[in-house]
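Hi support team,

I'm filing this because I wasn't sure whether my run with 2-(butylsulfanyl)adenosine finished correctly. The job status page said complete, but I'd like someone to confirm that the output block is well-formed before I use it downstream. Pasting the exact inputs I used:
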Amino acid sequence: MSKENIHQRIIELRSALEDHNYRYYHSSQPVISDLEFDMLMKDLEKLETENPEFFDPNSPTQRVGSDLNKEFEQVRHQYSMLSLSNSYSEEELRDFDQKIRKLTDQKFEYVCELKYDGTSISLRYKNGLLEKAITRGDGTFGDDVTANVRTIRSIPLNLKGIGFLGEFEIRGEILLPFSEFERINNEREELGEQLFANVRNAASGTLKSQKSLVVAERNLDAYFYYLLGENLPEDGHLENLEAARKWGFKISPDTEKCQNMDEVIAFIRKWNTKRFELPVATDGIVIKVNSLSLQQYLGTTAKSPRWAIAYKYKAEQASTILQSVAFQVGRTGAVTPVANLEPVLLAGTTVKRASLHNADIIRNLDLHFGDTVFVEKGGEIIPKITGADPNFRHPMAQPVEFITDCPECGTALIRKEGEAAHYCPNEDGCPPQIKGKMEHFIGRKAMNIDGLGTETIDLLYNEGLIRNIADLYDLRKEQISRLERLGDKSADRILKSLEVSRQVPFEKVLFALGIRFVGETVAKILAHRLINIENIELASLEELTNIDEIGGRIAESVQAYFSKPENIQLVERLKQNGLQMRLDEASLANRSEKLKGLSIIISGTFEKNSRDDLKKMIEQNGGKNVSSISNNTSYLLAGNNIGPSKLEKAKKLKIPIISEEDFQKMID
Ligand code: IVH
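And here is everything the job wrote out:
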């Protein structure tokens, strides 16, 4: 194929894939199978790899995301991102209406929209191509999250149709559908990671993830509700959104025009419960004046437009009976009280349990068994109890008291100064804590043992086959294959995966040990600074705290871990089993102290190295890579397209700015 033909084919494939993508994510009416879609994608990927001159950041192949660790640049919003004033009653809405009618005699219409509960985003398009995606930030400056936004499949990278402006912005809400939220939290639970409290946090946390690969995996969605630019196609807000829908944006189908406040209020009532049937979270209704010229005439206050208002639904409440309280011991030993309730219908689902959080909350609520309690469902996973009604209390009702001993192992619970939670201190003898350690060890970010999950760990533990992480390496095939729901195949897979884990790099092994406060980053720092497990075992408190980013709390925890003979023995057994207990040769070879004591910030895009590589080079040479500029920053390593605010700040603080070449010279 000639270059010209190849280019033509690439263009055809991109357009076909965008079209299928649109059918799938917007109208849910795909015309080809997933497999066919994947095949077309593979064809395109192949052509693009073989012909890098035709690279295009807006190609559908780029939606898979990359694993590069990028900091976000701060970008100034072209139009500042205002928020809305809130209202909670019909009366407040009628006041809002009256205020507008005082300012104009003109006849006008309202548009009512659902108020989506996610995280807001502003997209800038130039000549039909997505140019930038910026978070709200402080309303004036926001984070450039373009790389992450590109992975959201319902957001068009190339606009369709005709009539779009050369340059415009569109704003909307990035959302995590409930089904995805559940899937992600289940996955996080298995990995022993902290759960997202609600869909809003999950959406904004995901959007701010440093890895677009993670964003791509999470299937975020987005609805758009505000078009901005010069010479918009229509004077009507709704009409403009309809135009935007034709260009490929996802616009809510549930938006309606209303002629007056009575119609607005009817719309609000209609969605009061209907909104729970939607796949995404909503927390109210937004009411906007439709005419842009009237919007402009009404203007804005410093914080919000005068032509729009949000009506927020009250969190739904129900009352029910508190039957009992269960105390659950988590993997970290933290004890959580959970209320068992007489089942009650709340916001579309039957509620049987509610979180009670900790002893203080139980005491403040003055809860008694058999109480009539109020439950409320915010966006949280499990509802909470907001109060008890003492009028319905039985005179002999017993107060709910926090337990004193661990329900799993009987050890007396402790509560640390200043902490709300009670803990079971029997780290090495309390079953959920032992199992928790093993689950952490096998997790994807730790030893990544395929085939082993929470359930298998439970089975192996209950059968008495494993008591600690080192026991995993003594497992024999017949011990695994005879277990319920497992067989020869699963046993082979688990053993193979354990075998492969012997090559997992030292820093991950260190993380996998589950030493308190030694997360992924700390494990990496310790591994690179102290090189092998013996040095870490023997390091004094001073040696540890002398390492940048290792504070007293971490250092003490490391020492406490290695002060226990059973842990030393455990590590020894893992070493005997062939696990990596020292930094690999390649990392060792590239080490130097040339940047010792220097803090370097990386900004922009580079020609020779990726930002991840540069970060590694800084660390390998004893320097520290920092993410925000301060007086303590030694250098700004600047590439192309560096954010103007960063540059400005560096100049102001007189921080030397170096290029990729200068940097290379420093370490050569
Ligand atoms: S309009 C100047 N419409 O609510 C008006 N906002 O409290 C800009 N939101 O920051 C906002 N759904 O994140 C608008 N249909 C909708 C919305 C909506 C959700 C969010 C948005 C905004 C916040 C304001």
